[in-house]
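Slides due. Your pick:
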Amino acid sequence: MFRAARSDDFVDGVVVATTYLNVIPNLTRSASPYAVIENVVVEESRRGTGLGRLIMAGTLQAAWDAGCYKAMLMTGSRTPATHAFYRACGFSPDAKSAYLARPSQRRPGC
């Protein structure tokens, strides 16, 4: 699922904020889908203006409107402000563990 850009995502025709919402079909939870949010980016000069919270609120609302029973995201950031932002948006860092595999890391038998 792709959220169409809104006018407040642009400044002078340039994108200043993004999120990408993936709605994943699911066989458990009464076939309720779940969401994975990726590519959460706010242009550096616009951080701290509320734009990130606005775009994340819209992304989460789109997930709930799609019937998702949960929304997840992962971040590679070690910046405390990034983690504080996600917690302020309602995400818990303690709910799940994440593992990542890349094609170059394939192991025999997997």
Notes: The mean pLDDT is 87. Residues 16 and 45 are 9 Å apart (CA to CA). The longest strand covers residues 34-42. DSSP finds two helices and five strands in the chain.
